[in-house]
């Protein structure tokens, strides 16, 4: 029986709440050995995760139903709410950074600094960023400084960790494959994409039409469709559909909602409309998809 997917809070080993923590992947891997019940299963967090993989351990990182092979040094982003699973038979060398939105706010780190990395990606599309040896040296040095402050007694250690995290993310933004577009990030046109994606995140259950979003953004539906497609290769309509599909797949795999209940949860007026939408986009009926992937 597949139950509700687990959502984890950011806590210390004693269960106390915390806003920032860094661990080595080797330590995490060692903790899981001999405990099959603790092996990595699909799950999600209510906080941000950045994984720095320093070597080539083999295996895959699955984020929102997409598999990304572990093919050398790379950086992986997992946003709050994304379903992910990290699978490797051997202990990878690297680090895991976990931090909350509160930590970002306290240290003056805007969400937009992170959003730059995947500004033009559709929902659920979070490929790891490969890094070369020079970049890896920079990232690893920042990580080691973080460890020193985390383990030390400096009164301002959390401020130092915040500054180092901001520097880490700035380096990611500068090194990512989309860096040539980052210079335009703060222009009005790119704010349009950012605002459009934020609106989808908060309104996808109520609004399925491009026109609904265009009105809130004070542009025409035709302009929104054309501009989003010119920048991303996908239309505004496809962005809305991608968000609905990601949420539908999560509900199908990790809850026992019926097709009717699921359709209403996602804002479809009739279950038949949801069934037709899901089959058109995925090639499967919702129930067939649930059965196929669970097997």
TrEMBL record:
PROSITE patterns: HTH_ARAC_FAMILY_2
Residues covered by the HTH araC/xylS-type domain: 194-292
Any one GO MF annotation of this record: sequence-specific DNA binding
Keywords, in A-Z order: DNA-binding, Transcription, Transcription regulation
Name this protein carries in UniProt: Helix-turn-helix domain-containing protein
Taxonomic lineage: Bacteria, Pseudomonadati, Bacteroidota, Bacteroidia, Marinilabiliales
């Amino acid at each position: 029986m597949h139950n509700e997917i687990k959502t984890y809070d950011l806590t210390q080993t004693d269960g106390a709440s915390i806003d920032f923590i860094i661990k080595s992947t080797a330590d995490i891997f060692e903790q899981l050995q001999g405990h099959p019940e603790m092996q990595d299963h699909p799950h999600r967090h209510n906080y941000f995760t950045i994984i720095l993989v320093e070597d080539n351990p083999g295996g895959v990182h699955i984020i929102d139903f997409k598999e990304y092979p572990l093919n050398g040094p790379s950086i992986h982003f997992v946003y709050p709410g994304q379903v992910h699973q990290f699978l490797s038979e051997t202990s990878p060398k690297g680090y895991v950074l976990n931090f909350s939105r509160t930590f970002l706010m306290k240290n003056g780190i805007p969400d937009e600094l992170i959003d730059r990395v995947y500004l033009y990606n559709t929902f659920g599309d979070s490929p790891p960023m490969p890094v070369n040896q020079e970049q890896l040296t920079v990232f690893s040095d920042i990580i080691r400084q973080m460890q020193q402050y985390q383990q030390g007694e400096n009164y301002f250690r959390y401020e130092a960790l915040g500054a180092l995290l901001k520097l880490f993310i700035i380096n990611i933004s500068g090194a990512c494959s989309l860096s040539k577009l980052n210079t335009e990030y703060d222009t009005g046109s790119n704010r349009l994409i950012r605002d459009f994606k934020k609106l989808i995140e908060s309104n996808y259950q109520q609004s399925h039409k491009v026109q609904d979003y265009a009105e809130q953004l004070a542009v025409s539906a035709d302009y929104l469709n054309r501009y989003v497609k010119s920048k991303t290769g996908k239309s505004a309509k496809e962005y809305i559909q991608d968000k609905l599909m990601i949420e539908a797949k999560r509900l199908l795999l990790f809850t026992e909602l019926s097709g009717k209940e699921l359709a209403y949860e996602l804002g479809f007026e009739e279950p038949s409309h949801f069934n037709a939408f899901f089959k058109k986009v995925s090639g499967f009926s919702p129930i067939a998809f649930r059965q196929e992937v669970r097997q």
